[in-house]
Amino acid sequence: MKVLVVDDIGYSCHYYARLVEKIGFTAVMASSGYEAIKLLQSDNEIHVVLTDLVMSGMDGVDLFQQAQQLERYSDHGIVAAPQFILMTAVRPENNAQDRNLQRIKLAKELGFSKIMFKPLDQDELKQELNDMSLNVIHTSNTETTLDLYSPTQKIRQSVKDIMAADNKEAASEFLQVLLEEIANLKEYLKTS
Predict the structure, then answer these.
(1) Which of 49, 90, 135, 173 is deepest in the core (most CB within 10 A)?
(2) Which InterPro entries did the record assign (predicted)?
(3) Is the pLDDT of residue 147 over 70?
């Protein structure tokens, strides 16, 4: 999976690109939102954008909005817009009227996959990119992309909700359903 790292501070861009590669994915870099848009227009293999919030000219939220409007095509048809991770050094405990905090709130509303605070936690980034890579898996007979990221996130959220509610009965029932589906997948793999 190819990840576009966007940051207008050169050493930060380079650092996060190397981190993406250390995790095991291909990284390309852009030093501005404008450069990122050009790369997204020309490279249909970019599936994830890891962008800083605060950048001169076009910030990370503006980049997301413009990327959603791009028409990207491959030999197999339309290429979906990439998933976005927003990274920022702005902390929510600062003044709630701060423009950048309003931009973070807007990012959540617009549908960023993840908002991460700098310095990025390597394990958290690795987990997020691994989850996102599930969305890039293609079926063996077609080039149709399967969305495995969304259901994975829903399962994780359900587990968190059950544990937060301290509901042992729900936990047991949910585990039973998961085990049944795991058995179905194992049976399917045996027949392949």
Answers:
(1) 49
(2) Bact_response_regulator, CheY-like_superfamily, Sig_transdc_resp-reg_receiver
(3) no
Class of domain 2-139: alpha beta
Token pair of 43 as six digits: 């490279």
Burial per residue of 13-47, b for 16 or more beta-carbon CB atoms within 10 angstroms, e otherwise: beebbebbeebebebbbbbbbebbbebbeeebebb
Question: Which residue has better confidence, 143 or 163?
Answer: 163
Residue 22 has pLDDT above 70, yes or no: yes
Whole-number pLDDT of residue 17:
96
